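subagent[fold] <- orchestrator: predict structure for attached chain, return tokens only, no commentary.
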Amino acid sequence: MLNYILGFFSNDLAIDLGTASTLIYVKGKGIVCNEPSVVAVKKDGKGKRVLAVGKEAKAMLGRTPGNIAAIRPLKEGVIADFEVTEEMLKYFIAKVHNRRLLVRPRIIVGVPSGITQVEKRAVRESAYSAGAAEVFLIEEPMAAAIGAGLPITEPSGNMIVDIGGGTSEIAVISLAGIVQSKSIRIGGDKLDEVIVQYIKRKYNLSIGTGVAEIIKMTLGLPMPEEKTHKLEIKGSNLITGIPTTLEIESGEIREALNEPINALIEAVKHVLETTPPELAADLVDKGIVLAGGGALLKNLDIILREETQLPVTIADDPLTCVVKGAGKVLDEIKLLREVTIPS
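subagent[fold] -> orchestrator:
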């Protein structure tokens, strides 16, 4: 009865608990929170104390003194630090409810399709500890497909490739179920990491992941016939230790990203090869829809189109597909029962 009363005053939430960002959708209001999944923690004799969460904490990444750590509690789409994730969720939930007490929302959380039972339990427990009355889990490709407006309840094949910060989720969906899927631990973070290593190897220059992200989003994946673009970057010379500026070319970044992009293409091809022929036939016309932050990587859609010979489109506002899809599910009880993961 108490849960019912507390729930009555609450606003249901949909959460895209991402490696890079956490987005929260409130029923009836839309997306009310879009912040980096970063927590700044101070370590002292009493243990850990949370200093900042979200944008404020991200600004501290790589700039903190020894006793303060800016932590990303999710790695490759799953919880790496349970305690810090719980604190982060509590902060965001309190923020969207304007710090009101006695708020016990129903929460639906997007999770990678390859998630283990232990990881599912960790997500559920984090959400309950953060004050949820009820917790539902939805696989990210399913949520992304709903958010992208695909007709997932119809008896036809719909293919989604959701490229997030920690994982890429590839799925073929029909009749509100995932028919074939693959989750790979390659996302925006991995691409940034590869660029950091490439610059270190080639130029003996140490750059941060923030600089790598700017390189990735500015230069993208140039096509061979495209004009070469240049970008000036700053970092620390590994031999002299002195801050240095250098210019890099777009072709170098295509070369640096070859391996992870090829792994993503292979994963997409694998899902296509193992999809039942009837559904594969639907994809000849419908093609592939890209969602997630990685969908914005310049020319990725063109490369996928060339490799698969299928139409490739980018979802409207790809960054918010998962949270919007999960939000839509909250509004439809029948769909909620069909698409969420059984507890």
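orchestrator: received. Logging for downstream: Confidence is low (pLDDT under 50) at residues 1-9. The chain has twelve helices and 19 strands.
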